[in-house]
Amino acid sequence: VQLVESGGGLAQPGESMRLSCAVSGRVFSVAAMGWYRQAPGKQRELVTTINNAGRANYADSVKGRFTISRDNAKNAVYLQMNSLHPEDTAVYYCNADVNSGGYSYQDYWGQGTQVTVSS
Question: Are the C-beta atoms of residues 32 and 49 closer than 8 Å to each other?
Fold first, then answer.
């Protein structure tokens, strides 16, 4: 199973950016999916998650600015980031709970994509 992120880069404060993550490989089903981020010198933190029914939750720091969505047919998750702040600068990681057969789900991570917000 692989998670591949795309869409990072450089943005100015107030601009928008969209991240994508696709799950591939031996995938029977995907439960929760989410985005985490890690800024330099800080621990990785939760940004947002979404379950397979579409219910989402967000960190307080991104509520009202970021929106998570998913396409279950494509095993993909997206993060629309609006009104970006310099403090949103971090490496963003995609996460997914994947069932590859059997009775359990395993936790997988993408390789990370850099988001830099700077004027």
Answer: yes
